[in-house]
Design goal:
The chain is 42% helix and 24% strand. By secondary structure, it is α+β, with helices and mostly antiparallel strands.
């Protein structure tokens, strides 16, 4: 991790994050003075499950994963965060330790806002407070849907759904490949299955011309068939 001397303005992320748009110009000026920004390399851990979170984090660039570790040491990935996303706020609001670990999977520039100032903004700005409340409800709904999928969908259906969600959340590059490059272990971690199963299913999807594979790069060839397979729509 390296300190970034060039602290970005919150306005730079307004396109990707609507929450800080609710702050006044004076509040944004104070926030620029209080927050700091760090550069994390791929593989860096921002915080671990069970540790105390001392503030909230907002991603200026890059991608991080949030995961829980099972008794066997295997990662169960809960979600990913990208530019404009904030995380760590639920632990601050609840006063609990972090319920997941957060690790960088693509070099990231991440802003940090101390907990005391975050709580101050919530108390003094009702629109900002409602934005945080809405975000909490959205994440809770996503978590409930994830639990339902694990319980009711088979691995093939879950993998198809995950590929579609990655496509929706991260988009594609000029070659039509997903803008997030995951290892097979990471894909298995979010699908909730063994790595070997993901490798086998990706090969089947490729054979069925649903996707195209180039090492860790994945291109979706038939979105409609993937939708029908996942029963997402």
């Amino acid at each position: 991790m390296n300190y970034n001397n060039n602290i970005p303005k919150c306005e730079d992320c307004f396109v990707n994050n609507d929450i800080f748009r609710k702050l006044t110009n004076d509040e944004l000026d104070v926030l620029l003075y209080i927050k700091n920004c760090n550069i994390y390399n791929k593989g860096d851990t921002i915080y671990n499950e069970g540790t105390r979170v001392t503030g909230i984090y907002c991603i200026k660039s890059g991608i991080v994963k949030h995961y829980k570790t099972g008794n066997d040491g295997k990662e169960q990935i809960i979600r990913f965060s990208k530019k404009g996303d904030i995380f760590g706020f639920r632990a601050i609001l609840s006063g609990d330790s972090a319920c997941t670990s957060t690790k960088v999977i693509e070099e990231s520039s991440v802003c940090f806002i101390p907990a005391a100032h975050f709580i101050k903004l919530i108390k003094e700005n009702s629109a900002f407070s409602m934005g945080i409340m809405k975000l909490s409800c959205i994440e809770l709904g996503d978590a409930n849907q994830y639990i339902l999928d694990i319980a009711q969908k088979n691995v093939r259906e879950r993998l198809a759904e995950i590929l579609l969600l990655l496509n929706d959340n991260f988009g594609t590059n000029d070659n039509g490949e997903l803008n997030i490059f995951l290892t097979r272990e990471e894909l298995a971690g979010i699908v909730g299955t063994a790595t070997e199963s993901v490798i086998r299913l990706l090969s089947e999807f490729k054979k069925d011309k649903l996707i195209e594979l180039n090492k860790r790069k994945i291109k979706l060839l038939d979105v409609q068939k993937l939708k029908r397979l996942s029963e997402l729509y």
